[in-house]
Specification:
This protein is α/β, with parallel strands linked by helices. The chain has two domains: 135 residues, 3-Layer(aba) Sandwich (Rossmann fold); 34 residues, no CATH class. The chain contains six helices and six strands; from the N terminus they run βαβββαβαβααα. Strands 1, 2, 3, 4, 5 and 6 form a six-stranded mixed β-sheet that branches. Helix 1 crosses helix 6. The chain starts with a strand and ends with a helix.
Length: 173
């Protein structure tokens, strides 16, 4: 089975997860790992797409790429600065899955994990938004910024690797 792992990354988080997934399926079949901007063809049996979350969905580059994919078996993963069990993470998962399914793709599975937030974004939010603003600094948000700073960690990467290894094994029967 010919597989593509295509990802978009800003801080390197999503790239780390993509590489880990590739290691997990290394012996399973032919694969290519590429940044989305370097993908020239969608001639693959299984496409795994990685994104980072921006404004509640896949970042623009990944969003545009997802909209080009039609009638394929899909897996997706993303990194985000929120907690993986949060309502925000669940909403992001749903939105991304809907992007794929509207183009008649079959989503086989997905994985999400925290990723360190770009320090420039944290600084922007500290300066731009007052403490009472929904995106402004408050004790909970500052704690979360600290919590995510070490992600994706080894456990996250191992989880992604195992998740997609199992998906590929299921697809291959």
């Amino acid at each position: 089975m010919k597989t593509l792992i295509a990802y978009s990354t800003k801080t390197g988080n999503t790239e780390k997860v993509a590489i880990s997934i590739g290691e997990g399926i290394e012996n399973s079949h032919v694969k290519n790992i590429k940044e989305i901007k370097d993908v020239a063809s969608l001639d693959y049996d299984f496409i795994i797409v990685g994104a980072w979350i921006d404004r509640g969905t896949a970042n623009k580059e990944a969003f545009d790429f997802i909209n080009k994919i039609k009638n394929k078996k899909i897996g997706f993963f993303f990194t985000l600065g929120a907690y993986p069990n949060s309502d925000h993470a669940k909403d992001c998962t749903k939105k991304i899955e809907e992007l794929f399914t509207k183009n008649n793709n079959k989503v086989i599975g997905h994985y999400l994990c925290q990723g360190a937030i770009d320090p420039k974004l944290i600084e922007f939010m500290r300066k731009q938004f007052p403490a009472g603003h929904p995106h402004g600094p408050n004790p909970d948000r500052i704690k979360r910024w600290s919590d995510v700073s070490s992600h994706p960690n080894l456990e996250d990467l191992q989880g992604a690797k195992l998740k997609f290894k199992k998906l590929v094994e299921e697809i291959n029967g």
